[in-house]
Design goal:
Blueprint (H helix, E strand, L loop, with lengths): L2 H12 L3 E5 L5 E4 L1 H7 L3 H4 L10 H15 L5 E9 L5 E11 L8 E8 L1 H60 L5 H27 L3 H5 L1 H16 L2 E6 L8 H22 L3 E11 L4 E10 L6 H4 L3 H12 L3 E6 L5 E10 L1 H8 L1
Helix pairs in contact: 5-6, 5-11, 8-9, 9-11
Length: about 350
């Protein structure tokens, strides 16, 4: 026996990866011990079978289509991940690599299939997927709970503390108005009245910051204009809003989400980017066949930028991404050190006709 053939047979027998030689009809001609161990069959059992007999029917269609292309020389090899049915009826996962050998021992082409058992990896991926879904559900609950708590505190500030302070300011004003101008206490009470009035304004402003109802009451465009004006004035930052006439109803949940994303992005740009100018652009894309329109909001700054791969797990980006995920949207970040940053939020909304059709 030639030395090369001995080496091949040794590798064939000792390989930890399943190996099979098949004819063009999928009939198994040779199999190695690793494949037998993976599927639970003996060599004799496997070599009396066709490869389709232990393939999972749900994955067989893709494999069969590629196998036909291989047979007709449209492709020379292919690789897929698929399920197999073991002899005992249980399932396992394999990474299958199939190649066409130009010529077998009798002159006809043969198929060589390499199968790596990835069952353990797939099981681990499934566990990780479940954990990821659980984390997403937890993140959603945390965001909702956070929003509800902000709403509760804002309501108490506005309806309780704010009202009480307003009443106090009004009483002080009445007292000041009833005192003779020559009374020394009048000037001091007037200063107190002015300070309490300022405090009332601050409490109301804090209430709006904690939970703004502007997107619902004003609409997204005007709410963003007010937000940008407020942040620009506070941080002495040039913030420009560019928004086309959208002419479609935006659900309150979507409007609130985009408002919160803009708020987070603008604060980040003002505090951390060193930018002198920020532009907020709201536009809509093409309508899909089912009447949905892509709504896109971009926040672009001329700051120092950052490496998105290093900041991807930052709480700000995570919060924005999770908020958008909750409404079926997505977040895209483009940034590089020294070139500024573009944060794009995208969400799909239905036009009025589509909403009416769905309701009916």
């Amino acid at each position: 026996m030639p030395d090369s053939e001995q080496k091949f047979r040794y590798l064939f027998e000792k390989s930890p990866i399943g190996i099979a030689l098949e004819d063009l009809g999928g009939k198994l001609l040779f199999v190695n011990p690793a494949l037998c161990s993976m599927l639970g069959y003996t060599v004799e059992e496997l070599t009396s079978m066709n490869c389709s007999q232990f393939a999972d029917p749900e994955d067989e269609e893709e494999d069969w289509e590629l196998f036909q292309k291989l047979r007709s020389n449209q492709i020379s090899n292919y690789q897929i991940e698929k399920r197999y049915v073991r002899k005992d009826g249980t399932y396992c996962w394999g990474r299958l690599h199939v190649s066409l050998l130009a010529e077998g021992t009798n002159g006809s082409p043969l198929i060589i299939a390499l199968v790596e058992d990835i069952t353990t990896r797939k099981a681990a991926e499934k566990v990780m997927e479940k954990q990821q879904l659980a984390l997403q559900a937890l993140a959603s609950r945390l965001i909702n709970a956070h929003e509800e708590e902000r709403k509760r505190i804002a309501r108490e500030l506005h309806d309780d503390i704010g009202q009480r302070l307003s009443l106090l300011a009004m009483n002080i004003g009445l007292i000041v108005g009833g005192l003779p101008k020559e009374r020394a206490e009048r000037a001091e009470l007037f200063r107190t009245y002015a300070e309490v009035s300022d405090l009332v304004s601050d409490v109301h402003e804090l209430s709006h910051k904690l939970h703004s109802s502007r997107p619902q009451h004003l609409g997204l465009r005007l709410a963003l204009k007010e937000l940008c004006s407020q942040i620009g004035n506070h941080y002495k930052l040039a913030v420009e809003v560019r928004s086309e006439e959208l002419a479609l109803p935006i659900p309150s949940e979507t409007a609130s989400c985009l408002y919160r994303v803009a708020e987070e992005a603008l604060h980040n740009a003002a505090k951390h980017s060193g930018a002198s100018q920020v532009t907020v652009t709201v536009s809509k894309g093409e309508r899909s066949p089912n009447g949905e329109t892509l709504l896109r909001m971009e926040i672009k700054d001329n700051g120092r930028g950052f490496d998105p791969t290093l900041a991807a797990k930052g709480l700000g980006l995570v919060s924005m991404r999770e908020r958008l995920r909750m409404i079926g949207g997505s977040l895209h970040v483009q940034s590089r050190c020294g070139t500024g940053t573009v944060i794009a939020a995208e969400a799909v909304v239905e036009d009025a006709a589509a909403q009416r059709a769905k309701a009916s």
